[in-house]
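Please fill in the sequence for the structure shown.

STRUCTURE ENCODING:
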């Protein structure tokens, strides 16, 4: 499943091809993704993509009507200004510089006026293509916690939010209402780096431990995004997937192997039905 670093890599990969370009045509071969694609998305045809942003694991294509093209007195209030894409479990995007025949799972093409195509492929169809006049209209985005790499995600914030929360810290930091983008692998790795046992209740963390955890989450995600930068060329290759980065994992998937710090055996257990890896000694 694409995690936040992969989505950010996708954003950086497609941005240079889309920014400032006019959308010529949108072809929807299969509208039944996680949510049915709204026909209103076709209002994007003729609009310019002014930027490609990201919120959590959603890619946000910001649109602008070409000035003077639309009669302002006519339906301007209902015109969409955003296309929002989620890659779901198996979605991927790639850039085609010249047309290529669509394959079985190529569900959406966004064809630019200059002939370049953004092609969306999703075998399992858990992804999404949404559209809206305002991002506030999208319930998928309204309850999300802060971005992990922003200043809003701080030790003070985490400490305040953790009050009275007795759930294991591992599950809690994976809750997108608290902070977005901390997937299962990153949660185990961050807790190891911060030397915090994954099963501890969230409200047992001291402010100093919250500080270590916030720093660890930012470092783990930033490193993953940085490594993704080397895979940007993949957007012009056949599968378009940035793939999992060759990040050196400290604990994830290493049950029974020696801890890189203390040589104790890495343990695993399920927390909230998710595999969790940790070092009992370093995180005791
Ligand atoms: Zn250890």
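FILLED IN BY: designer on duty
SEQUENCE:
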């Amino acid at each position: 499943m694409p995690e936040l670093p992969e989505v950010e890599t996708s954003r950086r990969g497609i941005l240079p091809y889309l920014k400032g370009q006019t959308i010529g045509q949108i072809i929807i071969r299969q509208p039944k993704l996680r949510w049915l694609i709204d026909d209103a998305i076709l209002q994007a045809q003729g609009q310019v993509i002014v930027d490609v942003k990201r919120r959590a694991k959603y890619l946000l294509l910001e649109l602008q009507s070409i000035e003077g093209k639309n009669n302002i007195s006519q339906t301007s209030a209902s015109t969409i200004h955003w296309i929002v894409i989620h890659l779901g479990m198996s979605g991927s995007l790639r850039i085609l510089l010249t047309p290529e025949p669509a394959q079985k799972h190529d569900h959406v093409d966004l064809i630019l006026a200059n002939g370049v195509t953004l092609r969306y492929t999703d075998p399992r169809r858990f992804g999404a293509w949404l559209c809206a006049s305002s991002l506030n209209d999208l319930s998928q985005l309204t309850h999300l916690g802060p971005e992990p790499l922003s200043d809003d995600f701080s030790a003070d914030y985490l400490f305040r939010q953790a009050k009275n929360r007795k759930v294991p810290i591992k599950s809690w930091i994976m809750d997108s209402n608290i902070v977005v983008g901390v997937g299962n692998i990153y949660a185990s790795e961050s807790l190891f780096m911060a030397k915090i046992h994954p099963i501890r209740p969230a409200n047992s963390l001291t402010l100093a431990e919250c500080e270590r955890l916030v720093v660890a989450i930012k470092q783990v995600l930033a490193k993953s995004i940085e490594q993704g930068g080397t895979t940007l060329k993949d957007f012009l290759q056949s599968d378009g997937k940035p793939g999992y980065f060759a990040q050196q994992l400290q604990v994830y998937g290493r049950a029974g192997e020696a801890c890189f710090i203390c040589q104790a055996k890495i343990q695993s257990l399920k927390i909230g039905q998710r595999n969790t890896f940790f070092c009992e000694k370093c995180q005791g």
